Amino acid sequence: MAQGLVLLTVKIWYNKWVKMRENVLISKLTTMRLGGRARYVAEVTNLPELKEAYDFLRERKLPVFVLGDGANTIGRDEGFGGVLILNRMRGIEVVEETSDDVFVRAMGGENWDEFVEFCSERGYSGIECLAAIPGTVGAAPVQNIGAYGQEIAQTIDHVEAYDSREDEMVVIGRDEMKMSYRSTIFNTGADAGRYFITAVTFRLENDGWMEPPFYASLQKYLDENGISDYSPSSLARAVRAVRAAKLPDPKVEASAGSFFKNVYLSDDEAELARERGLKVYDKPDGRHMINAGYLIEQAGLKGARLHGFYVSDKAALILINENAKSYADLAAAREEIVETVFDKFGFRLEQEPVEIVAK
Ligand SMILES: Cc1cc2nc3c(=O)[nH]c(=O)nc-3n(C[C@H](O)[C@H](O)[C@H](O)COP(=O)(O)OP(=O)(O)OC[C@H]3O[C@@H](n4cnc5c(N)ncnc54)[C@H](O)[C@@H]3O)c2cc1C
Fold this sequence. Notes:
Blueprint: E1 11-15, E2 18-25, E3 37-44, H1 47-59, E4 64-67, E5 73-74, E6 80-87, E7 92-97, E8 101-107, H2 112-121, E9 146-147, E10 150-151, E11 156-163, E12 168-173, E13 195-205, H3 216-224, H4 232-246, E14 254-258, E15 263-265, H5 267-275, E16 281-282, E17 288-290, H6 292-298, E18 305-306, E19 309-311, E20 318-321, H7 327-345, E21 354-355
């Protein structure tokens, strides 16, 4: 063995009930496939195990980071010297059903797309356009996931969560979550990282039919394929097909989905951008938005290869890790994109995925 080289082996053991692993590569737990080793990984499948994992890290004064499927999370080269808690709590149940509404509760470790399928196959509508978003149910509220004209702020009713500051279980209602574009109390402000979401309850419509027009690219697909069945299951299938044609499958290509957030503008900024010939969307809620992928494309970077990353030629907002092994490569690619867009348009793009760091 070369001098100074330390071989780290993954050790698996049970701390009473909870399954623990030591020295686990974060690159294996995140879809961008970057990141060094986590000191400990705890896989929790129920509330007593969750409590035990937090007791474990508190006793040792270690930092914590909660992880679902790692589809919106980036690991750093130095790894993480604390405990990654993986949410593996499963279960879906219909809690209450009337002729108009249905309340469906899913545990946080459920796969999001399987949950969408569970609901849409039963004719419950409100989340079908969010089909095929990778990740877990518990992570969905964190950045208020959205796609094809829907976001979960429209249908979430409440979450059940472990409040790690007060060491107690709490229920947080939709209004308390302060949901806006990719932002909630779970990822922004003083309470970011405070709650471990154990279950999410949605209030969906029970009538099983949606009214067109739908989001432009979805409508185009429906029209081109002669689909006039606007049931939740039919729309979810259409969304899966539209996404499969342009978005990378995390099992095949490494990415964290949209790498940058879209740019929101004030009225004056929007007017100025339009005068400069940029495509600005007026959202139904009165806000103005420029698509970050459009800015990257207009800056001539669509299809570019940068430091082991590929700016997808199907959706320029997606950065695919082709052969980069280090976070430093990602930082270099990110800087090149951000600076090029800034020099050209004066907008500084902001990264969407979160990074695993000790807080
Ligand atoms: C190919 C691809 C396409 C994507 N498309 C979309 C899209 O269309 N729309 C969209 O909004 N997103 C999209 N994403 C991003 C991602 O799918 C979502 O953000 C998803 O919710 C991440 O789920 P996860 O379980 O992988 O979360 P993780 O990446 O594991 O975690 C994300 C964040 O949530 C926190 N977290 C996770 N679980 C919990 C919990 N139980 N309690 C508290 N905090 C928690 C983490 O600490 C972290 O801050 C895409 C990603 C990929 C790879």
